[in-house]
Amino acid sequence: MIQENGTEMILSLLLTGNELMAGEITDTNSVFMARELTQAGLAVNRKIVVGDSLSSLKEALTLLSRTSDIVIVNGGLGSTVDDLTAEVAASVSGTELVENVQAIEHIEKRLDRKFLMEASPFFNQIRKQALIPHSADLLENPVGLALGFRMKINRAICYFTPGVPRELKEMFQQSILPDICRLYNPKTGRKTAHLNIMGIGESQVQQLINQNIAEEALQGIELGFRAELCCVELKLSINDSKDESALRNVVSGVKGFLAEYIFGETESLSEAVINLLRQQNKRMALAESCTGGLIASQITAVPGASDVLEAGIVSYSNQSKSRLLGVSEGALETSGAVSEEVVIAMVEGILEKTGADIALAVTGIAGPTGGSDEKPVGTVYIGWGSSGDIRTRLMQVKRERLIFQQLVSASALDMLRRYLLGLGSDGIYYFDELSRKRL
N or C: which end of the chain has fewer CB atoms below 10 A? Predict the structure, then answer.
């Protein structure tokens, strides 16, 4: 963002925590802040992550406060010995830590007063969260104990926030973002369209865009790709409202030539399937073996899944396939549990048992053992359809066990999505050895 004096406004994030450095937790806080700031027309220029070390924190805060206009510091405002942020802020700013009366009142409102009595074993720990640099202004924390604070350090206005994601989000949306916008009054025409794609890779998406959309039509439009485990998110962004018409035209064009691969804009694959079933007034049933109920879990994670889901059965053993789904022992002995014959029987069985309109079944070899020359680890059969119209597909997904289950679950849902839309089931999934051979 360019300021009135013609210089770029520099905004930096400083994340602290040994657990971040060790990879013990995923840094979702900086992702959240960056998205919120970008939508407000404020770009993040730098991000630094440091452990719970006084020297490292002082070095990072000193650097960023001297070279940034805004610094948002996240983490280290708690009550334990590794919460060092307030101490560091006081040291770098050349002020002292003082027990803040408002912070004490805030803690008293959220805790029984007995915890703040000197006789309490938690006295020192809890009151530690009321130690705030003398020159700081408090930031409300409506959902936690540790108040945030704002202060000028060197060149920068610095905001100090708790590391608990829920607390950060409330503080950021209620206090910090409005304050930054008040100070800098960002003017933005930035707008982003999101398209979620499955059954085609990001390089193929780029190639099709190059083939189908003229270069001049993309002027003013930024293309961005985010490859997830089993799908691709295509982002098309503009920074000026004058380009909105061009953005709409490009998005419309992309939706045209990628129609069969786009499963939604903001919804997940399971949400897309549920929406189609709801629109068609159909109920589904699931018969899972190698995915162990993961497909059912993804469906039931969506509010309103009860509108469309009749039942799910995890028939892991051969005996359960026979007893619960009616798969014949002859089919299991002759073709094996991982076979087209058995997956068809699983679909037929779950349809008959539940009375659902449509069913989805999977059976495969997740590994790392259990494969053979004829059926190596990663072999999986997916079956789907309605009574009298059952489709199947053989795939080879040679991935670590848990990744295998996630990829197979996504593929199965995508094939059901395509079936509901009347599309073919020949999507080329990058993780499927068999379909890659068709490239």
Answer: C
